[in-house]
Write a structure and sequence with these properties.
- The chain is an all-alpha fold.
- The chain contains 12 helices and no strands.
- Helix content is 68%, strand content 0%.
- It is a multi-pass membrane protein.
């Protein structure tokens, strides 16, 4: 791509195992900030006819009082199972799509991110369905599901593949543009901040760019996320209410007004900055290191043994 390429694009090594190595390093933020997801989902799906929570702080207090600290981490198993694979898929697809488009431009950054967001929905949608159901189920002996796999297995037995992929259309509508915004914002911010290898403030700049990109990404499609959560939770506590995505939008707006589409936004943004700051900074630094290791065998000459007979030179094996 040349000198004008963005930092993430220049850091991207060509081999898939390097993508997996970088994406696998982005997981620690998930268990640390999973509690914010519990607030987000509970606030999004509660009915204003009989509201359980008055806001984020009241939601936190209620969970601690009724379910203990463990209630904050309900549904953690589902995203933990899929996180590394999803991140490897997202960053790998984005990098390869950007190369295939042939030019590093703002439009291509958006398109490459959107392609990555769309493809990972195949994993993301069932994973979030299980997470949502586990977070909302009753605690103790009355619980319906024993874990993420048991949740998906029960849904599949009752509703088939269609049930496992409940909310897929709204997930696609959320993930496709939001990942486009995600990668575009990160590219623009890293250029504006002058993020270059060797800069002593590189890591703080990457953290700022990554966290801000995460917030902009969530803001761009947050109302769709509210609809997705409501569709995936529909029928868990009583008869199903919604016939589809548009019906969910109509009923929600009619009953609660436009504010329903911002429900849980505060806790989402509270989590978005640190998690995405850690993700982008870690992936960029690790991939930059991997790119250096990958290029090293090509740039270093291997000294030949003085007494060795003439013959074809052996390539130095890669340590990756």
């Amino acid at each position: 791509m040349g000198p004008a390429s963005g930092l993430l694009e220049r850091a991207s090594p060509s081999r898939p195992e390097c993508w997996a190595k970088g994406a696998g390093c982005s997981g620690p933020g998930l268990p640390t900030f999973h509690w914010a997801l519990s607030f987000q989902v509970r606030l999004q799906v509660q009915s204003m006819e009989k509201p359980q929570y008055r806001g984020t702080l009241h939601c936190f207090q209620s969970i601690i009082r009724q379910e203990s600290v463990l209630g904050l981490y309900k549904g953690l198993g589902s995203p933990l199972m899929g996180l590394t694979f999803i991140n490897a898929l997202v960053f790998g697809v984005q990098g390869n799509t950007l190369r295939a488009l042939g030019r590093d431009s703002p439009l291509n950054q958006f398109l490459a991110g959107a392609a990555a967001g769309a493809i990972q929905c195949v994993i993301c949608c069932p994973m979030e369905l299980a997470k949502t159901r586990l977070q909302l189920q009753a605690a103790g002996p009355a619980r319906t599901y024993r874990g993420s796999l048991d949740c998906l297995a029960q849904i599949y037995r009752r509703e088939g593949l269609r049930g496992v992929n409940r909310g897929m259309a709204s997930t696609l509508l959320r993930e496709t543009p939001s990942f486009g915004v995600y990668f575009l914002a990160y590219d623009v911010l890293t250029r504006a901040l002058g993020c270059e290898p060797g800069d002593r403030l590189l890591v703080p700049k990457l953290l700022l760019a990554g966290g801000t990109s995460g917030i902009l990404s969530w803001l761009s499609t947050y109302p769709v996320d509210v609809v997705k959560s409501r569709l995936q939770a529909d029928g868990l506590r009583g008869a199903p209410r919604y016939r589809g995505m548009l019906d969910c939008v109509r009923q929600s707006y009619r009953a609660e007004g436009w504010r329903v589409f911002t429900r849980g936004l505060a806790s989402t943004l509270l989590r978005a900055f640190p998690v995405n700051a850690a993700t982008f900074a870690t992936v960029t630094v690790v991939l930059t290191y991997a790119r250096g290791e990958e290029a090293q065998p090509e740039g270093e000459a291997v000294p030949a043994a003085p007494a060795a007979p003439a013959g074809p030179a052996l390539a130095q094996p890669s340590s990756l």
